[in-house]
Write a structure and sequence with these properties.
The protein is mainly alpha-helical and 109 residues long. It has a single domain, classed as Helicase, Ruva Protein, domain 3, CATH 1.10.8. Helix 1 runs parallel beside helix 3 and helix 3 crosses helix 4. The longest helix has 22 residues. The relative contact order is 0.17.
Length: 109
């Protein structure tokens, strides 16, 4: 399986995610990529790079856990949607880290 070509037809703030994925062997469909990009609210370019790197590390951990023969198979080290779901639990958006929410103490009389 070769890396899939990714085409993005509209301007999107998550375009760095798409460019990063173009360099990685993955099994994501265009819809999967669209969902990942839509869920990337608050992610800056460095966060998206970290997300892709963490997904690649999750794929590597998965392959290592599968045993020594897993790297030799054609589907060996390919980043999948499950790897991105693992990465999303470890990488948080930095643009939303400094948001403070104040809840006023209002009482009904």
């Amino acid at each position: 399986m070769q890396a899939q070509s990714v085409e993005w037809h509209h301007a999107d703030s998550s375009l760095p995610l798409i460019h990063r994925l173009a360099r990685v062997r993955h099994s994501l469909s265009h819809d999967d990529i669209s969902r990942l990009a839509a869920a990337a609210h608050g992610f800056v370019g460095a966060d998206l790079a970290a997300l892709c790197n963490e997904a690649a590390m999750a794929a590597l951990r998965r392959v290592i856990a599968a045993g020594p023969d897993a790297l030799g198979r054609e589907e060996g080290l390919v980043v999948g949607l499950g790897d991105f779901q693992v990465a999303e639990t470890r990488v948080k958006p930095s643009a939303l880290r400094e948001v403070a929410v104040e809840v006023p103490q209002v009482r009904a009389s």
